[in-house]
């Protein structure tokens, strides 16, 4: 009910504030919500805007388009390579970003909704991109965010783009001994629910780790942009793809409208820390019943313990950055 109401009757508002003097990183910003969020940020005014993209060529095209439409100075926007399908790429990106004088917002938007099972870095690709690499980048950047918080007396924002579809699943894979190992078994993988599962994992992990960031000056929040036109369903095939395209045709938000919710989270204050944002506002009522249930809390702790091990294998000690 909340979903349809938002799609039909709510038009999220863009924050009025400018990002002048601030450095903002937007992942997956060559297309879709990330690109439109970057365009909004450029229009509002920004010190430095980094488009963190898989393809430099596509990133440069997006930059040209944003410069042409916003008239922002071209030198304000930089295009940096980041492939969340490669842990080395994530580490290289984090190293480069940690050398920036300041970072005010790390907007982790990049994501996929894979229909076919494929391994990336030893894990199913949706889990690798949307969860493992997304949080690897977050943890690698936490020391820098803490440092700039002290240095400039600011509250840098670490934003995770999640989705209302986190509520479409209760993670049946939790019945296995090891959740992440179960998600990597091709013969049992339910790819129909994999994207919602990845978004649920994001919600669970943010709720588990945000309290550990309290007192550091870093704000971590997550958001649901609503159903929006974008390239996310580009790989869908078969009947479901027709159904999904029809649904989007009927109720999806324009990409630039949905992208306002990303900018709201990028601009949000301490009230958003650890919280779920919906229609551009903090709204914990939109967090699924499963997440809030006793079983959800137990699952959250197991997910975090397992993810912690995975991340520390990729980069020893990285979760100690909290
Ligand atoms: N659209 C919706 O209705 C909706 C609803 C709720 C949540 N979301 C979330 O919004 C976020 C943005 O999605 P979107 O809808 O804007 O989809 P999109 O148009 O497909 O954009 C996804 C972006 O992520 C990038 N990306 C994919 N794999 C990557 C990788 N391995 N490394 C780095 N970047 C990668 C894509 O780059 P390439 O172009 O190079 O592939 C693209 O820039 C996602 O997290 C999605 O889950 C979307």
From TrEMBL:
Short name of one Pfam family: adh_short
Protein name per UniProt: Uncharacterized protein
Gene3D superfamilies referenced in this protein's UniProt entry, alphabetically: NAD(P)-binding Rossmann-like Domain (3.40.50.720)
Family indicated by similarity: Belongs to the short-chain dehydrogenases/reductases (SDR) family.
Keyword list, A-Z: Oxidoreductase
Record's keyword annotation contains Cell cycle: no
Any GO MF annotation of the entry: oxidoreductase activity
Lineage: superkingdom: Eukaryota
InterPro entries recorded: NAD(P)-bd_dom_sf, SDR_fam
């Amino acid at each position: 009910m909340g979903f349809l109401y938002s799609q039909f009757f709510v038009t999220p508002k863009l924050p009025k504030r400018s990002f002048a003097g601030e450095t903002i990183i937007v992942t997956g910003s060559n297309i879709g919500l990330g690109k439109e969020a970057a365009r909004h940020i450029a229009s509002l005014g920004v010190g430095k805007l980094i488009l963190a993209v898989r393809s430099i060529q596509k990133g440069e095209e997006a930059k040209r388009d944003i410069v042409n439409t916003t008239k922002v100075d071209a030198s304000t926007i930089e295009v940096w390579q980041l492939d969340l399908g490669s842990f080395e790429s994530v580490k290289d990106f984090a190293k480069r970003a940690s050398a920036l004088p300041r970072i005010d917002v790390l907007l982790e938007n990049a994501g996929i909704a894979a229909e076919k099972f494929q391994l990336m870095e030893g894990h199913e690709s949706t889990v690798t991109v949307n969860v493992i690499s997304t949080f690897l980048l977050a943890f690698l950047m936490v020391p820098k965010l803490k440092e700039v918080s002290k240095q400039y007396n600011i509250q840098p924002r670490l934003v995770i783009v999640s989705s209302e579809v986190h509520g479409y699943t209760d993670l049946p894979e939790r019945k296995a001994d090891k959740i992440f190992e179960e998600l990597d078994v091709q013969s049992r993988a339910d790819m129909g629910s994999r994207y919602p599962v990845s978004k649920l994992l994001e919600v669970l992990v943010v709720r588990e780790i945000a309290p550990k960031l309290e007192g550091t000056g870093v704000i971590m929040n997550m958001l649901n942009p609503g159903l929006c036109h974008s390239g996310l369903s580009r790989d869908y095939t078969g009947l479901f793809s027709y159904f999904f395209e029809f649904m989007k045709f009927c109720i999806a938000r324009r990409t630039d409208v949905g992208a306002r919710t990303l900018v709201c989270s990028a601009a949000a204050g301490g009230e958003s820390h650890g919280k779920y944002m919906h229609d551009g506002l903090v709204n914990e009522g939109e967090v699924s019943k499963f997440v809030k249930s006793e079983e959800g809390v137990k699952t959250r702790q197991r997910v975090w313990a397992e993810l912690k091990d995975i991340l520390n294998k990729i980069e020893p000690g990285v979760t100690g950055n909290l």
